[in-house]
Amino acid sequence: MADKIALITGITGQDGSYLAELLIQKGYTVHGIVRRTSNLLRSRIEHLRRDENIYGKRLFLSYGDLSDSTTLRRIFRDVRPSEVYHLAGQSHVGLSFEIPESTCDEAGMATLRLLEIARDQPEPLRFYHASTSEIFGSATESPQNENTPLRPSSPYGCAKAFATQLARVYRQAYGLFVCNGILYNHESPRRGENFVTRKITQSVARIARGLDAGLTLGNLESRRDWGRAQDYVVAMWMMLQHETPDDYVVATGEAHSVRDFVEAAFAVVDLPWEKYVKHDPAFDRPAEPKQLVGDASKIHKMLGWKPTGTFDQLVREMVEADLTALDKSR
Q: Strand ranges (DSSP E) for 87-217?
């Protein structure tokens, strides 16, 4: 059997980098689309780029922008992927209130462009769309599953709801093999520094080393279903290996508050969190989703996927990685 060829949008992101590693390990040839502006932000895949046994042999990068259909079509024509993983786009919920138009273009219209290109390919391919729990927003029920009504409460959630519904339409109308992975929050040491979890673990590392005096956060009672990114990319791959395309909630089924995350992070360095953490309402979001907790029983049953590790282990992994990075840089 010929090597499987995967094309990843957003390969330089947290999920893209873990997915690239997973697919290379499984014998794929992996192509990634990168923006010209992201060449300074490729730290997550730098270890793969530096490996001469991988880069230029199993891993290839192409410049492209999600707003540029011509270039995207050219990449598809040259790569001829059997699997496409669409992970790219502005994914910061809070930021989407400040840049709603570009968020909607990146999360919504870009997905439409890629689905149109996928529909025009001479050989059928399998398409993964990175949906999100934010499509449920002010959810009518908890936990949420694949049939929960969409009620987004942010521009990002609205854009992703649009893209998720489009993926379903293309699956039904054109018979495309398209899966929506409705992923709940997932973290790792590679999480972007503008996300609250990474902001916490970096600050805890700096406080522990005497470099920072404190940490200011928004709503500490905000609750999320947090899992490990390394597990969630396995779920993405499993969806595209199944005989029929479908939508799946990927979650741990447990909710923790930002306060829980803070407590667990400070516990790693054995410091009392109350002494260092302040609340500033300026960091609160204009609209906060209700309790988002995922019911992942469908993917457990259909594909056999299960999350690994505990919440405390995830937080410890992130804090320890930030401590190591800090110690190396000094």
A: 126-132, 177-183, 186-187, 215-217
Residue 172 in domain: yes
What pLDDT was estimated at residue 282?
79
Known catalytic residue at 98? no
pLDDT value at 194 more than 70: yes
* Confidence category of residue 140, pLDDT binned at 50, 70, 90: confident
Catalytic residue from among 21, 83, 106, 134: 134
Q: Which of 156, 184, 232, 276 is catalytic?
A: 156
Residue 203: is its pLDDT beyond 80?
A: yes
Give residues with Cβ within 8 angstroms of 266, minimum separation 6.
Answer: 204, 272, 273, 276
Query: Would residue 134 show up in a list of annotated catalytic residues for this protein?
Result: yes
Please indicate whether residue 128 is annotated as part of the active site: no
Which pLDDT does position 103 carry in this prediction? 84
31 and 99, same domain (yes or no): yes
On the question of pLDDT at 44 being above 50, the answer is yes
List the domain range (segments joined by +) for residue 209: 196-223+255-283+310-329
CATH number at residue 88: 3.40.50.720
pLDDT-based confidence at 286, cuts 50/70/90? Answer: low
Q: Taking each helix axis from N to C terminus, what angle separates 311-329 and 258-268, rounded to the nearest 10 degrees?
A: 50
Number of domains the chain is built from:
2
Cα separation, 53 vs 61, in Å, equals 15
- Same structural domain, 143 and 209: no
Q: Which of 9, 12, 103, 132 is catalytic?
A: 132
78/150 Cα distance (integer angstroms): 37
Q: Can you give the CATH number for the domain in which 266 is found? A: 3.90.25.10
Reported as a pLDDT band with limits 50, 70 and 90, residue 130 is very high
Q: Indicate if 47 and 90 belong to the same structural domain.
A: yes
